[in-house]
Amino acid sequence: MEATRRDVLRWLAATAAGAAASEATRRIAWALEQRAGAAPLVWLNDHGDALNLLTQLGRSVPTFTSLVAVDWDVAEFDALAPAGADPLPADDETTAIVILESLPAPGAWREPAGQRLARLLEAARAAILLGTEACYGGLGNAKESVREVERLCKAGKTPLIKLPGVPTPPQHLVGVLGHLEFFGFPRLDVLRRPLLYYGDTVCATCEYRGGLETGEFARRLGERGCLFQLGCKGPITRNSCSRARWNEGESWCVAAGGPCTGCSEPGYPDHQGLGLYGRLPAEAGAARSGWLQRGERLGYGLLGLTALGLGLHHLRRAVGEDRQAPSSQRR
C-alpha cells in the first residue's frame, strides 16, 4: 500500500519539528521506494571520509534502489556506473535528481567527465548541493565550481537546492526528496536552503535560550547556561539541530557542552575572522522573544503615560495656583 500525500506531509512535519524525526525519515524513504515512476537519483559521492552522508544515511534509512552512486575522485561516470546503469537518462525518460556532495575542480569541467556532469545538470529534474563544501565551496571545493553549478542549473532551468551542514542531517535530504516527489519544489530562503529545515535559527529552539534572554551565561565549557560568550554561533545559524538533534534524537552540539560552530552558514569555518569559537558581536545575541519585545513596548508605553500624567498634573496645579492668586499678583 502506497503512502498518501497526507501521510508524507505529517512525516515531513515530524522531520522538521524533531518529534520522532528518525522514524519519520525512514517512513518517507519507504514511501519513495513504493512510489511508482519516482525519479532516479544520481549521487556524486564525497571523498569516502567520515563525513560522507551515504554512511550516515545507511544508518537511518534503507539505500534507495533507484540510487546510482559514483565517486568523482576515483574515476569517470562511465567506469563507475554499476551494472551498465547510465547516470545520464535518455531524452524521453524521466530525468534524474542529481545530488552533488563533491564537485570537480574548476579545470575539470573541460574534461570528459566534467562535460558529462554539465549535460546531466542541464537535463536534471532538480539538483541538490549536499554539505557545506558543495554548497559554498568554503572548505575544499573552489567557489568557482559552485558558481559553475549555479550557472549550469540556470542555463538548463534546473531547480537548485542547497542542504549545508557538516554533515547534513539525513532527514534534510530524505525530506527534500519526499517533498520533490509528492509536493513539488519546496520554499527556499535567499541562500536556496529549504525553509522547512533552515527557517529558524538554532538559538530559537535551544534549551539555553532563556539564558540568553536573562543574561545567564556559561563562563567555561562544561557549565550549564547559554554558551554565547564562549563563541556559540547559534544566533546566526539556521538549522534544525536543536529540534531534531543527532544520533536518533539523543543529543546535539550545545547539549553536549560545545558551542554551535555555525557549520551550515556561508562564513564557516572562518566567520569573517572570528573562527569557530570567536565570540559574536553583542548585537548578534540581542534577539528578544516575542513576550519580552511586547513587555518592552508595554514598559515604554507605561513610562510615556506616566510622564504625560505627571505633565498634566503639574499643568493643572499651575493653573489652579494662578486662579487662586490675588488679582494684583496675576497682573
Layout of secondary structure:
Blueprint: H1 5-17, H2 21-34, E1 41-45, H3 53-60, E2 67-71, H4 77-80, E3 97-100, H5 112-123, E4 126-130, H6 132-136, H7 143-155, E5 160-163, H8 170-182, H9 195-198, H10 209-214, H11 241-244, H12 290-324, H13 327-330
Parallel strand pairs: 1-2, 1-3, 3-4, 4-5
Helix pairs in contact: 1-2, 1-8, 2-8, 5-7
Can you walk through the features of this model?
The chain is α/β, with parallel strands linked by helices and 331 residues long. 41% of the residues lie in helices and 7% in strands. The chain has 13 helices and five strands. 36% of the residues are buried. The model is unreliable at 73-85 and 288-296 (pLDDT under 50).
Physical arrangement of strands within the biggest beta sheet: 2-1-3-4-5
Span between N and C termini? 99 Å
How many beta-strand runs? 5
General shape: elongated
Amount of beta strand: 5-15%
Low-confidence stretches: 73-85, 288-296
Secondary-structure-derived class: alpha/beta
Instruction: Tell me the major beta sheet.
Output: 5 strands, parallel
Mean pLDDT: 78
